[in-house]
């Protein structure tokens, strides 16, 4: 009976059955594709909702965040608006006090606690190895013992000026302390390290310590290779009494040494201009400052710049204030003038 079916009919059935067999995988693939699309779309929708929610929360928190307050706003809130005015007034008063000679530490027991006013404090630079020089000075122009006390009664204080050893408390310090107990003629700079390279800073420590220790009209720095005509110096200072802002000495200038290794080499030579010449300043052998200038050094000691030489350092500090430069030939210790008050030892 199968043979009775026409050949064309069989071919038609085979042709119709093939699409039915191949459509099953396509349906499965289409199903999974639809499912995947729905999954991805759902995730994107969920992410969009999350972003919207986070954005709303951020805006809400930003709106609730307290605004930034300036110092002035805080003072107003605290009811302390008047505090700002008082701070400004206090700063102005402090500036005025400094300009009039405010001292960080009041004068100590070495002279002015009793209210005594001195004419001058003379600081003679010395070092650990200068014991013989000090002995010679005490036997020549510098009084000692009771004579030193009588000189102070006249209003003149003389002290050898020295710092401390780099190894605090060693034999160098102990020897100076022992000598001072015997002679009582030292001004020991506790905050200064006694060393050749630290000499420019020593002058700052000397003026600052001296002005805090004794109330005097003048403060004199003398090198340890200088002999003084003490009475001649006292007469010179008596003549200058009550002269404020006096910067007294043998005024000079000179070429800045720029070559390392040479005497008087200045490491910061480039700061002195193209001509390489120092400004006008008093020779470091003997220089004198009136009280208000010494107080200026004391008040501003932390910010005053020191150069390679102490006299240059003092000269640079005097350029920034209304100092009166007094060039006195009697203080040129290396000259051959007959009426000078100092000479090389």
What does this structure look like?
The chain has helices at 7-64, 71-77, 81-99, 131-138, 146-153, 171-183, 199-213, 230-239, 291-299, 310-318, and strands at 118-125, 156-164, 186-193, 216-222, 226-228, 246-255, 277-290, 324-327, 342-344. It has a domain at 117-344: Spore Coat Polysaccharide Biosynthesis Protein SpsA, Chain A. It is built from ten helices and nine strands. Helix 7 crosses helix 10 (310-318). It is of the alpha/beta class and 345 residues long. It comes from Populus alba x Populus x berolinensis. Keywords: Glycosyltransferase, Golgi apparatus, Manganese, Membrane, Signal-anchor, Transferase, Transmembrane, Transmembrane helix. InterPro entries: DUF4094 (IPR025298), Glyco_trans_31 (IPR002659). It is a single-pass type II membrane protein.
Layout of strands and helices, then pairs:
Elements: H1 7-64, H2 71-77, H3 81-99, E1 118-125, H4 131-138, H5 146-153, E2 156-164, H6 171-183, E3 186-193, H7 199-213, E4 216-222, E5 226-228, H8 230-239, E6 246-255, E7 277-290, H9 291-299, H10 310-318, E8 324-327, E9 342-344
Parallel strand pairs: 1-2, 1-4, 2-3, 6-8
Antiparallel strand pairs: 4-7, 5-9, 6-7
Helix pairs in contact: 2-3, 7-9, 7-10
